[in-house]
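Quick one, tokens below:
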């Protein structure tokens, strides 16, 4: 190969690498300047139940944990690197009490996010597609995850206990 041909090959490789780096930089800049907006809260409205805790109803004006004397709190949906989460606007905590979990609002900001999930090959995975939001988990104070599944709205009628 002549010196001119070697120089052309080297120049082509440099141009290819430079193009790839420029493409990557533009993709990163686009995601920072124009992030994907959070999903509309209305797509998760409804009733969610678990076998070991109080039902949770999500509505336009807030989140109801259907437990005696528990206040309605606001919530938002957020996109995280692990998937879409439900962020309660108060630090909620689930504590084990006599084989069930009882909710409380923590005095300091020590609540947990509620992660939406889907089951793939027997494993829970985060959900990134807002059209697949059918259940979420709550991490309890003892380290157990409480799986909440979408349920008929009747499951949340007069369920305060």
């Amino acid at each position: 190969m002549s010196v001119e041909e070697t120089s052309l090959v080297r120049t082509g490789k440099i141009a290819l690498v430079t193009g790839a780096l420029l493409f990557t930089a533009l993709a990163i800049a686009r995601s920072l300047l124009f992030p994907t907006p959070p999903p509309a809260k209305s797509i998760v409205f409804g009733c969610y139940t678990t076998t070991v805790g109080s039902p949770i109803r999500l509505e336009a004006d807030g989140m109801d944990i259907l437990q005696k004397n528990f206040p309605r709190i606001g919530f938002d949906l957020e996109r995280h690197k692990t998937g879409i989460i439900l962020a309660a606007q108060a630090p909620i905590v689930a504590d084990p009490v006599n084989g069930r979990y009882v909710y409380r609002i923590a005095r300091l900001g020590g609540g947990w996010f509620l992660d939406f999930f889907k089951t793939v090959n027997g494993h829970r995975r985060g959900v990134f597609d807002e059209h697949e939001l059918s259940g979420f988990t709550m991490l309890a104070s003892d380290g157990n995850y409480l799986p909440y599944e979408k349920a008929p709205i009747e499951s949340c009628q007069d369920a305060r206990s």
